[in-house]
Design brief:
This protein is α/β, with parallel strands linked by helices. It has helices spanning 31-41, 55-63, 78-86, 106-116, 133-137, 182-190, 195-200, 204-209, 229-240; strands spanning 2-11, 25-26, 29-30, 47-52, 68-70, 90-96, 123-130, 143-146, 152-156, 172-181, 213-218. It is globular, with a radius of gyration of 17 Å.
């Protein structure tokens, strides 16, 4: 099997803050199905597949007519799970869409799919948005500093850049969508964990430590990342009140 642009949605069963997160139900559908359907209906990808370590997630996706693959339970990161899928489904480009982000706008996915085709085999693509005041001091919000060509210089959980003289320096936050060529993904996954990656617990730093480039699209959009029971209830309210556009 082969395709041009493949979207892989990693979905790990275990979650510390929200047990069995991909299977949490919203209006009769598991969360992972909401993400899958958003990716498919966007029309941005030639093929979409959920990559998981649990049979119940495969069954849930297939129940709603989706595609899912079982992958090893031993992968330390979602990117490694994506790479296992790419070894089974050949593609030119692959987009790693987080399995707990059901509200990424379809227009963003379409533009991302177009831009990923412009990267080379030593690069990857991601997204940054302007950070709010609350984002700046929240270590769960990852900040990124870019050069003049929108290429990442560094990612951190700390507020960067540090605006010492209050010059009004803009701060950007990272959105967890990644795009690779099949070869750049292979290269990335061949590297061992770097020291900066371990220190910040941010796998994108591995690419920078080993000399790969990370190009960032700057797009301001709000999306609900579901990490806690409170996040889940927020999304349920969005759906129940009709404020979720599928």
């Amino acid at each position: 099997m082969s395709t041009d642009t493949l979207c892989v949605i990693p979905a790990r069963y275990a979650s510390t803050r929200l047990p069995a997160k991909p299977l949490c139900e919203i209006a009769g559908k598991p969360m992972i199905v909401w993400v899958y359907e958003r990716a498919v209906k966007s029309g941005a990808f030639d093929s979409v597949v959920v990559a998981t370590d649990h049979k119940e997630i495969v069954a849930a996706v297939e129940k709603f007519g989706g595609n899912a693959l079982m992958t090893s339970p031993d992968h330390p990161r979602g990117t490694d799970r994506v790479f296992e899928v790419v070894n089974k489904i050949r593609c030119k480009f692959v987009v790693n869409l987080q399995g707990d982000e059901p509200t990424v706008p379809a227009a963003i996915l379409k533009e991302f799919s177009t831009e990923v085709k412009k990267i080379d085999d030593n690069s990857l693509l991601t997204i940054a948005s302007h950070a709010t005041i609350e984002d700046r001091v929240n270590p769960n919000v990852v900040k990124v500093v870019l050069n003049q060509y929108h290429k990442a210089l560094y990612f951190s959980r700390s507020p960067i850049p540090y605006d010492r003289d209050n010059t009004g320096a803009k701060m950007l936050k990272h959105k967890g969508i990644y795009g690779f060529s099949s070869e750049s993904l292979k290269k990335f996954c061949s590297f061992p964990q770097g020291e900066l990656e371990k220190a910040e617990s941010l796998e994108q730093l591995r690419a920078l430590e080993y000399g790969m480039e990370i190009r960032c699209m700057i797009q301001d959009f709000e999306s609900v990342g579901i990490d806690t029971p409170e996040d889940l209830e927020l999304f349920r309210r969005l759906v129940a009140t009709g404020n979720y556009e599928h």
